[in-house]
Amino acid sequence: MPRATRAARLSGLLASVVLLAVAAVGCGGSDSGSSSSGAKGSDSSSAAGAFPVTLDHKYGSTTIKTEPRRIVTVGLTDQDAVLALGKVPVGTTEWLGGYEGAVGPWAEDKLGGAAAPTVLTDTGTGPQVEKIAALKPDLVLAVYSGLTKAQYESLSKFAPVVAQPKAYNDYGVPWQQQTEEIGKALGKESEAKTLVSGVEEKFAAARKANPAFAGATAVMATPYEGTFVYGSQDTRSRILSGLGFSLPKDLDKVIGDTFGANISKERFDLLDQDVAVWIVPDLTTAVTELHSDKIYSDLNVVKQGREVFTQETGDYGNAVSLSTVLSLPYVIDRLVPQLAAAVDGKTDTEVEQPAS
After folding, report:
1. Which single residue of 78, 87, 168, 297 has CA 20 to 30 Å from 106?
2. Going by DSSP bridges, is the β-strand pair 118-120/91-93 parallel, antiparallel, or unpaired?
3. Hey, CA dihedral for 93, 182, 36, 41, is it positive or negative?
4. What is the Cα 47 distance to its own chain's centre?
């Protein structure tokens, strides 16, 4: 599934047959909590006294009464924050594919010997409510999501649900807020802030080591159904901003109130920045096809060798798309050398692919 449309498909309403199945599972509410045992996690002493805790979100607020032990992540990248905070979800939601439990290599050590989570899939109608209910969660996290109100209400019948923050577009929550919101939900707010600070320090170190990034412009795009450009509220674009780059001036005006959109060739000026980062299906055919477009190939960003390519199905490309508290250090180590080569002012500098 192309990264540009996977999120959009998740915003469909639940089928009525699934809604009926949920009603048969049991009842509860968004203000309930459970202490049922589940996936292996860290010592709960740090969470003592943190509950009850109430979190605001797009559909109101949710109170979690006790420390959650059986966590299901509906948010497509929420599992990384849960793992980083010492908990292993009992269920995750598939997005990128190819990883057991939907846990990438940058997060595998956080399993700590626990069984990989059960992976749920989306068929285009939203979360698999019946299968989620069968996992008997005491918390459902949908922070990085496009959860609809109907889906939220259905899931809330059997567990507290933390939906996406109302301050951002669907799938637009910054990784910092995602981590901290999940930290609050798990009774680990302080630990979450510490994790965020650690990654922000890595961004700061990269900016300091690469002063050329400051003031330079950059854009993130993918060749899906033409040319799809990510807006300022997308996590991928925020990688560039975090490294000191400025996004195209008219980006959000063209993209609109969403995480990204396809652009016409008349707006290829958005691609003609100091560096263009492409997430492509492969590093050969896809790049050749891009450069076969006369309008695009005539842009200075191409003629001056200021493109960066990442393969969407590889670990590196997957880490870029996830952009989480665990995957971002992995990304920074690989992306920063490429960006430095792209903006060094020398047209003959090759932007090399990471060794691994």
Report:
1. 168
2. parallel
3. positive
4. 25
| pTM, rounded to two decimals | 0.87
Neighbour count for residue 17 (Cβ, 10 Å):
8
Inform me whether the pLDDT recorded for 10 exceeds 90: no
Q: Going by C-beta distance under 8 Å and a sequence separation of 6 or more, which residues neighbour residue 354?
A: 316, 333, 334, 337, 338
According to DSSP, the residues that pair with 72 across neighbouring strands are 91, 140
Under the banding of pLDDT at 50, 70 and 90, the label for residue 117 is very high
Burial class of residue 13 in the structure, from the number of CB atoms within 10 Å of its CB (0-12 exposed, 13-18 middle, 19+ buried):
middle
Report residue 125 as tokens.
């109608």
Partners of 310 in the beta sheet?
Answer: 279
pLDDT digits (tens, 9 = 90+) for 16-66: 323 323 333 333 334 444 333 344 444 555 576 899 999 999 999 999 999
- Looking at residue 4, its amino acid is A
